[in-house]
Design brief:
Radius of gyration: 14 Å
Number of helices: 0
Oligomer: single chain
Largest sheet: 7 strands, mixed
Strand content: over 45%
Number of strands: 11
Amino acid sequence: QVRLVESGGGLVQPGGSLRLSCEASETKRRLYAMGWFRQTPGKQRELVATAPDDLNPIVVDSVKGRFTISRDNAKNTVYLQMDNLKPEDTAVYYCKARPYAVGPVAYWGQGTQVTVSS
C-alpha cells in the first residue's frame, strides 16, 4: 500500500512563500502522476497542480504564475512551491498520486494546513 506523507504547511503572511513536499513511501514503483489538491470548509476538493509522467505540468489558472509543481522521481516526491500567497489560498492541501495512466486507483495524503493571514 502506497503511503503519501506531506509536509511544509503552516501560517504565512500575504505575499509570503511556502514549499509543500509529498513523499510516496513503501513503493519503489514510479508513479504515473503526482499532484496537489486543496479544500476549504463547505467546498469540494479542487485541483491545484499535477505533474503526469508523460506530459507537461498542469497548474490551474487561479495560481498560475505563483505556484510551481515539480517532481523528484528518484525520491518519489512531489513539491509545490507557493509564492506571493494570498488569503484565498488558505486551505488544507492534499497530495494525490496515481500509479497508472488509466484506471481508478489513486492514493491521498492526510492533508496539510496552509493559512495565509496577517
